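Hallway conversation turned thread

IA: we were arguing at lunch whether anyone had actually written out Phospholipid/glycerol acyltransferase domain-containing protein end to end. Turns out nobody had. So, for the record, here is the sequence (549 residues) and right after it the structure tokens. Reply here if something looks off.
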Amino acid sequence: IVISRDKRDDFEDILEERRNSSDLRYALKCYTPVVYKGISPCKADALTNMVLQSSHLHYVISQVSKETGRAVDDVQDEASAILEEMAQRLQLSTIRFFAFTLSKVFKTLFRSICVNEEGIQRLQQAIQEHPVVLLPSHRSYMDFLLMSYLLYTYDLALPVIAAGMDFMGMKFVGEMLRMSGAFFIRRSFGGDKLYWAVFSEYVKTMLKNGYAPVEFFLEGTRSRTSKSLTPKLGLLNIVMDPFFKGEVFDMSLVPVSISYERILEESLYAREMLGVPKPKESTSGLFKARKVLSQNYGSIHVYFGQPVSLRSLAEGRVNRSQFSLVPRHIPKRPSEEIQNFVNDSAYMLVRAQEENMVLKPWVLLASLLLQNHHQSQAPGQKPGMALDELTERVVWLRDLSRQYGAFLHWPGTSRSADTTPEEELLSRAVIVLSCASYRNQALHVFLRPALLALAIHAAASTKKQEVFYSFSFLRNMFSNEFILVPGATVQDFEEACYLLVKTGALQITQQEVLVTERGHRTIVFLTSMLDPFLQGYQVRATHSWSKSL
């Protein structure tokens, strides 16, 4: 498989071997993963005992007892119940069952599952040296099953995975997930001090003892639109805490980019965004979803990024001596310095995920077709585009994407008679939103140049300072829409200028920003990329204004 950027690793299709050998033999293979510093991982029961006996949890139990007037034993029992509900019970027999079952499912659903084996080798080395935190992108329920499947395939230590309580309602399946390494957490803790203490101590104990790589999704939930979501900081704060307090020498943070040619839930996501209620997670719902097995979902690319040393990341940014002033077991609110560091690290890690997302041709096709669809809504415009014109525009966009650093993988239904107009409208809306989901996979490639293109249009001036003010305003407006690192406005402006000058779209002097004759096509395309989001904000603002009257 040829990828457009030489500096990135090559991929290997792991399904190729699965198609040519026994799935049962694969599931029952000798599994001897390398572990942290050669230490034999403790059993799940021993792990929970370590948590319940920790100084930190005993301190919080004492505090809760004093604040509520409850007996210490009563609070201790509640902590034990929380941990019982939360804890994973990883069992190799369950992993072997999933290995066999998922091999069958993956070979049916996907043409290929491609993995950068150099990234696997880097991860193998990292696991032996320091505690590891795996941070995959999150677009599908398939993500955490896929991650465990890959680590089992390559004889790596299986991760323990933070999962939402939703799955606990799935009889049998919820327990199977628990026995494959999932630990269950509430979507929000509110002000529940005891729950937070049990949860944080459980995660930190697993990390400090090298029990297993800890895996969670920085975005907190699945992205229904295929663009990255603003990172949630709670779990990242927890996993970094043992390093801040000197309980581990270092920690490896590994961003993982999972790119689907077609997401299993794409139609479901589109309907959710149109107001159709999300189906509740249940075992019966899982069996009803078996019809997906009759469809082809193309290929998956999984890219294990460079492990990021937390020690190197914090050097010069975090003064760890502040943690020596208070006993480790006493909870302490993170300082502003720590909060800023964790926030910046989270954005950096999500950007690392984005940069290694593999884009398929359909992503670029969807971007162009959506722009054409929007333009064809104007009076007098006919829908559709000639195949020759579409081909020429896709090739142009492919070359532009490459110059912007995109990671490209580029390989050398009619309406029924009894469909109502309402059903037809819903069907068309689902198609448009599904196309938008594909287009959104490429947004990170064009985002900064697109903001500059829109700023040039909005400023209606060639003066560099005015264009920068317009860029700053737009960047601030979209700060919760896209992954834009706080405080990096100047760097983003300079990056956008560099890319647009590099591709011949702009000429920039000390005082002016000028669009070149050949640059008009690029500027129009980039501006159109952000048009749907801009219009969405305009509709929201208009609606809010009219309601206030």
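OS: looked through it. Residues 1-6, 413-417 have pLDDT under 50 and may be disordered.
IA: good, adding that to the notes. The chain has two domains: 90-356, 361-374+391-409+426-548.
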